[in-house]
Write a structure and sequence with these properties.
four-stranded mixed β-sheet, 11 strands, TIM Barrel, 15 helices, four-stranded parallel β-sheet, 14% strand, 374 residues, globular, alpha/beta
Length: 374
């Protein structure tokens, strides 16, 4: 039973009927989601999202001790929102050797005790499937306790094109080589009208969803993401959320959802004057809260997105429905390429930040199993 005070407060909201249904555990639809996105009542959204998070996780917030391994910045999709990529042959382009990859993981395991390596890079037409198979096998051989959370759906698609193979075949072989789970990158907004403006050479929305469904059918769990704050409408955001909800009802393969705001600094979109500023903290809190409400009973974990919004906003997001602080992200190079902010956190800083926000903190592994409480 919710307190009378909460019920009385929610009655005044323009979305009280949807929030009541969410608290009653009812499944919400696209029109509900559009109304939530359009609503300015961030406080009521946060109130309900926090109640739903508390019901599921109590006062425990998790994080993962990990590194990001950006294996190459060579990319031929030239996304307008990216400051990280370099075209083939560019003087600043790089691709890590197998030795470099293994050395980074082994050193990070020894120094920081990581339990996850997040492997992402560009769409590099020079890299064959064997490169990734060898890397994953070597990581598992040297550090079997480190989860390989690697390659976006669009990178999987690129490998399949290079190999003249199917994405299903590529995923099967990557799993055999040691891939544990897929990050949700490459989704951006799952509406082709948006993709045509910000990433016209990347896979279409239905292809991202298909590759995720294939991964789930092979027992490869994944995250889902949403990059908001470019050219999308409120309806586009709601549609994105619902497409992921629909696939989750079918497969149950998404472990977590991560909404994050576009950082325009040093990107083509900023140069063209399409987007001048990031969308700000209030939007983050709204998107976190809406995600918790829409995915209640469907996707358990919501990350607080400190990477693009900073620690202070990530702390606030914990009271708006987020239950996971994400990772330490040592070695991150994609967001740092925008020059926006420092993109590394030690586990000590995460533990302190979560405790300051009034929560209990626990370290988890790649599969969201709790390893230890602090």
């Amino acid at each position: 039973m919710q307190s009378k005070l909460v019920q009385e407060y929610l009655k005044k909201s323009d979305i009280h009927d949807i929030l009541d249904n969410a608290l009653a555990g009812k499944r919400l639809n696209l029109n509900d989601c559009i109304r939530l996105v359009k609503s300015d009542d961030a406080y009521s959204l946060g109130l309900v999202a926090n109640i739903l998070r508390q019901r599921k996780f109590g006062d425990t917030i998790t994080f993962v001790n990990n590194i990001i391994l950006n294996y190459t910045n060579v990319c031929v999709t030239y996304c307008k929102f990216c400051a990280f990529y370099r075209p083939p042959g560019h003087e600043e382009s790089y691709t890590l050797s197998l030795e470099d990859i293994v050395k980074r993981v082994v050193t990070s395991r020894q120094m920081f005790g990581i339990t996850q390596v997040l492997i992402q890079g560009g769409h590099n037409p020079n890299l064959k499937l064997e490169y990734f198979e060898n890397a994953f096998r070597a990581i598992k051989q040297k550090c079997p306790e480190v989860g390989v959370h690697g390659l976006s759906a669009s990178e999987v698609d690129m490998i399949a094109r290079v190999e003249h193979s199917s994405t299903f075949e590529v995923l099967s072989r990557l799993k055999q080589a040691g891939l544990d789970s897929l990050p949700g990158a490459g989704a951006e907004i799952l509406e082709d009208s948006v993709k045509e403006q910000i990433s016209p050479l990347k896979i279409k929305s239905h292809e991202w969803l298909r590759i995720m469904e294939e991964a789930h059918s092979l027992g490869i769990k994944s995250s889902a993401t949403m990059m908001y704050g470019t050219v999308e409408t409120d309806e586009d955001r709601a549609s994105h959320i619902m497409k992921i909800a629909n696939l989750q009802q079918k497969t149950g393969g998404f472990m977590a959802f991560i909404p994050w705001s576009f950082e325009p600094n040093k990107t083509e979109m900023q140069e063209e004057g399409l987007i001048k500023y990031p969308s700000g903290g209030l939007q983050l809190l709204k998107m976190i809260a809406i995600s918790r409400i829409m995915y209640n009973g469907l996707i358990d974990h919501l990350q607080s997105s400190w990477l693009t919004n900073g620690i202070g906003m990530a702390q606030l997001a914990l009271s708006y429905g987020a239950d996971d602080f994400g990772g330490t992200l040592i070695g991150e190079e994609v967001v740092s390429a925008t020059g926006a902010r420092s993109t590394e956190l030690t586990s000590d800083r995460i533990i302190t930040a979560v405790k300051q926000a009034g929560f209990r903190i626990a370290e988890r592994d790649n599969a969201y199993n709790i390893i230890k409480y602090y």
